[in-house]
Amino acid sequence: MKLLTRIEQHQAGRLLAGILVCLCVYHLLILTGVVPYQFVWGGRLASVEQMYRFEAFSLLLNVAMLMVVLIRLGWLAVPLPARVVSALLWLMVLLFALNTVGNLFSLSLIEAVVFTPVTAACALLALRLAKKEPN
User: Where is the chain membrane-spanning (predicted)?
Assistant: First the structure.
């Protein structure tokens, strides 16, 4: 865990926010058909309609996670108690960790090779943000 503390929380937050913005753009590209939907959800989506539902959910979730990060960084003024923001960050750690495991078993080589390290990095960055700074 010492390695994790080598990056400042503010740096981790900025990096995670940047990755989340890129992921939102990626999901928009999938929704608009620029990127084939076979590259996401483990390559297991059965129809365009299913893709729209799953990708809309993904986009909304990524926007919500981006908002949590921006709140933690102090860039978005939302009256949420610090404990709630911390709890949401811990939930993000869990979601990114589970997504990393899911990506490892993806039928899509692109998802497995490209997004496994991305979601693993997101899990670690969210963990860095979730952990309290030493006094």
Answer: 12-36, 56-75, 87-106, 112-130
